[in-house]
Amino acid sequence: MKLTGHGGKEVVERILPGGMAGSIISDMPELEVDTQTAHECIDIGYGFLSPLDGFMGSEEVDSVCEEMSLPDGTLWSIPITLEANDDTIRKKGFREGDEILLTYHRKPLAIMKTGEVFQLDADRVAGKIYGTSDPKHPGVRRTVSRKGKSISGKVILVGEPEFQPPFDRFWLTPRNHFSLYRDKGWEHVVAHQTRNVPHTAHEWPMKYCWFAANEDLSVEVPHTGVLVNAVIGEKRNGDYIDEAIILGQAELANAGYFRKDTFAVSFTLWDMRYAGPREAVHHAIMRTNLGCTHHMFGRDHAGVGDFYKPYDAHSLLKQVREQLNIKPVFMMENWFCPICSEVTSSGLCDHAATAQNFSGTLLRSMLIDGVQPTRQVMRPEVFQTVQAASDTYGFGSPFVTDSYLQNRGNVFKLADPRKEVSP
Fold first, then answer.
1. DSSP secondary structure string for all residues of 323-359
2. What are the residue ranges in the chain where pLDDT is below 70?
């Protein structure tokens, strides 16, 4: 079955057939990659980043920075590049046309056919993508910290990663997503991007957007679904642990707050850039490749600190709307209104003077102390699931700590097909 993704291009899996890798990669020069690059290799290999088939060269990077498109005119908002330090490039002698084995934790991950080796102007890229060169911006720090030179080239995975519990239950490739929708009878799918465990201020917009995405479809039998697509990537101290995020989201359906035939949870490997408007466009592109027809965008989507205005992402999405194969659903700020006695939106409720904003700081302190929030803030089943994840995976905390970063289990493992080849 042909899968149509971003730009109307086919979503293609780039994975070596089973049994072939061992003999092919045995004598290849190796390049060890970091976690961000490993995630992007997997995303390219399965088509999450379609129509990309590898890491970008200088022409593509320039086009993305200046025109927010690939050289062929396809909308694209964030450069996808691979960096290696100068000593490694010199010692390995990488040249155009070479085939390199990309390894992660010393295990074979992907084959890359080397294209261009070039110097990335990281300061310029940061200014164009983030709209700032301020090192306080985490995306700027990430971009300028990747020293060395960039290497372009097409990528093909040498095998399939093996996702570990609890992630294995939620790992869906783009092809798997399309199959899920077919099995559930969904004609419309609205994506919810998240890096958080759910509280009611997240739940309310998902339900609102289900109605918005359903549009003129019948309601007797559901033909629209909400896809919670969590982002799993680089973690910082104070972030929610990945296990609490994905298990907490799944509990919404397990406990009946969403019907199972209108709700699903999956994840994408992606290291957040916090690029605000440009990252919102990128999220729309990725969820198009998952077969979603709609995508919800709230206040300060993918932003950080005060680097962007609350609705900058909405403004950019409106500008590029005709180039997207997915329909943005825009959300305003929401709050709990004691007069309306419900979670509602600043666009509907006229009780701003008495409205109660959801305090992330207060919720965090309650979760750390094990104090159950009221039902108006967090569902009790979700709270219990988050606490269980804290004990099982978080070394006693639902938030990332030094212990979690140093001792957490792998999200995925890689096999080594070289061991399967007879000497």
1. G-SSEEEE---EEEETTTTEEEETTT---TTT-B---
2. 1, 19, 359, 420-423
Three-state DSSP state, 290: coil
Cis peptide before 51 (omega within 30 of 0): yes
Here the tokens at position 338 are 């004691």
SS3 category, 390: helix
| pLDDT value of residue 421 | 53
Structure tokens, 298:
């709230």
Pick the CATH number of 6-161 from 3.40.50.11440, 3.40.50.880, 3.10.400.10, 3.30.420.40: 3.10.400.10
CB 263 within 8 A of CB 225: yes
CB 320 within 8 A of CB 281: yes
pLDDT tens-digit series, residues 245-272: 999 999 999 999 999 999 999 999 999 9
- 175, burial (CB in 10 Å: exposed 0-12, middle 13-18, buried 19+): middle
Rg (CA), the chain: 22
| pLDDT for position 422 | 47
The maximal CA–CA distance of the chain, rounded, in angstroms, is 75
pTM of the model: 0.95
